[in-house]
């Protein structure tokens, strides 16, 4: 049972969840929650008891010094935070955790019970996977939703994936059994630059959240970090002829495919997000 401290009265909260580990290529998904925690000044109100779900020989605690110079231990775990972003009709609940080592069903049940206690109206899960995607093109993001209205509004589709899953897939299944409306987004991180971070993929997921929430999210330094990341990969690829050839092959395959990024609808949505952000910046 997750215990909360100083919980404010929340307005129709939307939950955004990401988990480190197998579901988090390039730390792109957990990077979104980290970014939102910062720009929305979120406040941690509770945490999952790590003793029930983590093997400390697999995910070891970390010892270090705090801001006052005192040595302390940070345990692997999952935190729950709340935020009240300006311009949104909803409050936000942020879940950021490490994929547990055991008792996944109990773990999901505790998180869902906590979300229910907070009055959550929707669950948004974020993930990232390694894929044959060129780093020089827009990051592909696939999405699914449990409600027909969300499927139509966001132009999503039912997932056809069959195979092993991580805690994100198990958590989404638990949400559906709990009748919690759920949206899931997955970013495709180039497999040849799997080392985190991947700010370009994080930025792509933030864009999807803007469309879902119908609001602008402060981007901070993410665009600059994404451009710097792409330039860095360009330099690394140029040093190896075989890698450069491989990237060009991926680019050709991507450019000749029938991509949603090239559709008029996608361009219109991106322009709409630009206008919203411009209006917010000028306010």
From TrEMBL:
SUPFAM superfamilies: Cgl1923-like
InterPro entries in alphabetical order: Proteasome_assmbl_chaperone_2 (IPR019151), PSMG2_sf (IPR038389), Rv2714-like (IPR008492)
Pfam family, one: PAC2
Domain of life: Bacteria
Gene3D superfamilies the record matches: PAC-like subunit
Listed name of the protein: Filament polymerization regulator ParJ
Gene this protein is translated from: parJ
